[in-house]
Amino acid sequence: MDNIINKINRLKREKNAIILAHYYQPLEIQLLADIVGDSLELARKSKNTDADVLVFCGVSFMGESAALLCPDKKVLLPAPNAGCAMADTITPNDIKELKEANPESAVVCYINSTAETKAQCDICCTSSNAVKIVKSIKEKSIIFVPDKNLGAYVAKQVPEKEFIFHPNGRCPIHDELRADSVIKVKEQHPDAKVLVHPECGEKVCDMADFLGSTSQIIDFCQNSRNEEFIICTEIGVTERMAASMPDKKFIIPDRNQLFCANMKAITPQMVLNTLENMRGEVIISEDLRKAAIKPIERMLAL
Ligand code: 13P
Ligand code: SF4
User: Fold this and answer.
1) Dist CA 290 CA 88 (whole Å)
2) Counting ligands in written order, which one lies closest to the CA of residue 110?
3) Which residue from 36, 45, 59, 127 has its CB within 8 A of the most atoms of ligand 1, so it is best to mutate?
4) What are the per-10-residue average pLDDT scores of the chain (302 residues)?
5) Residue 126: CB within 6 Å of ligand 1?
6) Which residue lies with its CA nearest to atom 3 of ligand 2?
7) First-to-final CA distance of the chain
8) Are 62 and 265 in contact, with CB atoms under 8 Å apart?
9) Using a 6 Å cutoff on CB, does residue 41 contact ligand 1?
10) Which residue's CA is the closest to the ligand 1 atom numbered 8?
11) 119 to each of 1, 113, 261, 288, how far by Cα in Å?
């Protein structure tokens, strides 16, 4: 392993490259990355780095967002075929149809979407800033895609707006976490706080002591005096917290369910191969870039 890390570090220096990783990546990838973050932090930081090459350890929409924001940099995906199941629940045509049926609505698009979908939307959001973004929009009616669960969470915080969702939009990893699994671990750990990502279904969200994005969940645990936490989101977040906060106990309600296989597709050897061969580049046509960058830049401007 040390040998692989040494080779990665040498290639990073030679090629002026950095490695970015999402919190859902395997712990060994998070530990070798220069920047670890949630979707919003990674989008912001990829824009502000001086590196020429960004090796993006995440699913494909995350690499696409970095490539849209940094047309002068090479963005490489160690696992180019690892997509996000939620991003694939909705097509650009679905959005065209929603817009035709609701011409007075603004379209807010969760960043977990393809560049083609983003090109059809007015503004992007992530789970960290979705409430703030929706509140900033002047239109009363909002088409919120793809995730109807995140949308329902935002709708509760912004009751003055009307929301339109697409029935297919969801993350199978979070949406299929059963309330029963959470109840079972809560019975075993009655003092544990229940923390939930808003991509989870309504029954699980209703059990939350705290509902928030990846980085908000991490901040909550860091700042809490509580010693036990039940974490209802992808296991990468929980494993990182368990490693960095050894005096606290983190409980995963259903390990098999909360495992995003596409997020776990990357190994250190694949990162090394990517840097050696410079393969897996995200290529986006200029026409698509011009259309898809607008909602991301509008989000970042806020
Ligand atoms: P964050 O926006 O919290 O980084 O989440 C990304 C994601 O894929 C959630 O499933
Ligand atoms: Fe996509 Fe869900 Fe995996 Fe997040 S956990 S990357 S939303 S499939």
Assistant:
1) 21
2) 1
3) 127
4) 92 97 96 92 89 97 93 96 95 95 96 94 94 96 97 96 97 98 98 98 97 95 97 96 97 98 98 97 96 94 88
5) yes
6) 260
7) 42
8) no
9) no
10) 112
11) 41, 10, 27, 7
d(CA 263, CA 171): 13
Closest ligand to Cα 40: 1
What is residue 145's predicted lDDT score, i.e. its pLDDT? 97
Q: 65 CB less than 6 Å from ligand 1?
A: no
Residues 6+ apart with CB under 8 A from 148: 165, 166, 167, 169, 170
Closest approach atom of ligand 1 to CA 39: 4
Q: What is the DSSP string of 77-105?
A: -SSTT---TTGGG--HHHHHHHHHH-TT-
Q: What is the pLDDT of residue 302?
A: 86
Q: With H, G, I as helix, E, B as strand and everything else as coil, classify residue 258.
A: coil
Q: 30: closest CA among 194, 242, 223?
A: 242
Does the CB atom of residue 199 touch ligand 1 within 6 A? yes
**Tokens at residue 294, please?**
């607008």
Domains of the chain: 2-83+263-284 (3.40.50.10800), 87-171 (3.40.50.10800), 177-251 (3.40.50.10800)
What is d(CA 53, CA 48) in angstroms, rounded to the nearest whole number? Answer: 13
**Per-residue pLDDT, 43:** 84
- Cα of 198 from ligand 1 centre, angstroms: 10
Separation between Cα atoms, residue 302 and residue 300, nearest integer Å = 5
Cα–ligand 2 centroid distance for 2 (angstroms): 30
Which pairing describes strands 162-164 and 123-125: parallel, antiparallel, or unpaired? Answer: unpaired
Neighbour tally for 261: CB within 10 Å = 9
Give distance in angstroms: CA of 214 to centre of ligand 1.
6
